[in-house]
Amino acid sequence: MTGRWRALLRLFAVQGTWNYERMLGVGMGYAAEPLLEDLKTVDPVRHGEAVVRSAEFFNCNPNLAGLALGATARAEYEDVPGPQIARLRTALCSPLGSLGDDLFWAGLVPALVGLALIAVVFGAGWWAILGFLVLYNAIRVGTAVWALKAGLDAGMRVGSAISASWIPRAIARIGPLAGAGIGLAVPLVAGWYLRGFGWSGGSGALAIAAAGLAVARWFGPSLTGVRFALLSMVLLLLFRRMGL
Amino acid sequence: MSELAPLSIALLVLWGGIVALDLVSVPQAMLSRPLVVGMVAGWLVGDPEAGLRVGAVMELFALDVLPIGAVRYPDYGPATVVAAGLAAGAPWELGLGLAVGVGLVVAALGGWSLRLVRRMNARAIQRRAAALAAGESGAIRLLQYGGLFRDAARGIVLTGLGLLVAWALVRWLRLDRPTAVGLTLVAVGTGLAAAVNGAVRSAGRGARLRWLAAGAAVGTLLAVFR
């Protein structure tokens, strides 16, 4: 297995040592190790410095970390001054975090979860789960392969490569899809659960949902959805215990 | 909660460890989404329908989470394993409410345990600061394996403790039918509120909000006339 493929596999564990000091730093160092191996024979001193730099503070969306990893690894081989590589790493944190979060956590994941919930409501069962996993992982593995290659190809010019890539266009398309998917899914899921409880049960649950929304608007984020749910359940148990 | 066989309990605890790892550490393949976790956990205890019902409600709560940067969030993976184990063997209309309630407590504890592991990772890095400053690749590997081990152990302990508490709770808290149904309706209602709240917050005020509204209108029509 080449260093590039080993680095790609290790990127899937890039958050393995996530912490509040270096964030993804150590995970990036772990993924960089196979890419920097050849540098050890060429220039052992430079290799040692590169390993230190690779494990320093870094944070971004894990699915786009390959762009930073590839770019900095290439820069190490091109003998770019160390402080310049450190600046590149720092400069990539925000854009790769923002683009990746918009693309994956705020876009692709809710869109696919929405579709999976709709499929579950229509009786797809295991197929809904399998379809969700296959589709998501096909896209994220494809993105990881592309990101590492693009980073290695671009080196210090990775910023322009990101701007010219497909990512900004994909974000513009996935946002509306996520909105529509969740918008479709929520009423269907509500119907799926509440149909069997009759008019009074269904309207009671919808009233609780409306109260939960209002509470989240007025008291959020101190009263989160989880806290509101637990509070409502405890109140219900107390009322029932009092015979109400 | 029906009496679970030791093998089922062991499989649930193992599944809890896997999904806890998947959330952040490795491989982030979305195995930890409650919908996936619930279906598999339900299948492991012989009741995939209950697992799916529990998983879908927990998924509604999970849609309220946007895991960006160092934001704190509940861990719904082991929580859904516990909830699915608790709901198995009973009609979902009666078992879902209590299962989701226990699941939400485990999820909150999971969020706390995640922060604990992150602080332990930071302490491990501080202990090996000299080796890191010297550029020792071996130190990086050890830190990485240590971090993965801590996260897997977190998931296993969380799931095991959650199942234990669930088992004790079922014996202590005898719910009559109206209370059990009421809890289920509260779980569904609050789950719907969480999902809508998360969707509106993510939508902002642009095109996505319009698509959300259009989707909701079509979904409502489909739900009514289905």
Keywords:
A: 244 residues; 2 domains; 10 helices; B: 226 residues; mainly alpha; globular
Please sum up the structure shown.
The complex is a heterodimer of chains A (244) and B (226). Chain A has 244 residues and is mainly α.
Description:
The complex is a heterodimer of chains A (244) and B (226). With 244 residues, chain A is an all-alpha fold. In chain A, 79% of the residues lie in helices and 0% in strands. Chain A has helices spanning 3-11, 25-42, 44-54, 65-77, 82-121, 126-154, 158-163, 167-194, 198-219, 225-241. In chain A, helix 3 (44-54) packs antiparallel against helix 4, helix 5 packs antiparallel against helix 6 and helix 5 (82-121) runs parallel beside helix 8 (167-194). In chain A, 51% of the residues are buried. Chain B is mainly α and 226 residues long. Chains A and B meet through helix 2, helix 3, helix 5, helix 6 and helix 8 of A and helix 2, helix 3, helix 5, helix 7 and helix 8 of B.
Number of helices of chain A: 10
Instruction: Round the mean pLDDT of chain A to the nearest integer and report it.
Output: 96
* Main β-sheet description of chain B: none
Question: Given the helix and strand composition of chain A, which structural class is it?
Answer: mainly alpha
Roughly how many Å apart are the termini of chain A?
68 Å
Distance between the termini of chain B: 32 Å
Following the backbone from N to C, one meets helices and strands of chain B in this order, namely: HHHHHHHHH
Order of helix and strand elements from N to C terminus of chain A: HHHHHHHHHH
Give the class of chain B from helix and strand content and strand pairing. Answer: mainly alpha
Share of residues in strands of chain B: under 5%
Number of helices of chain B: 9
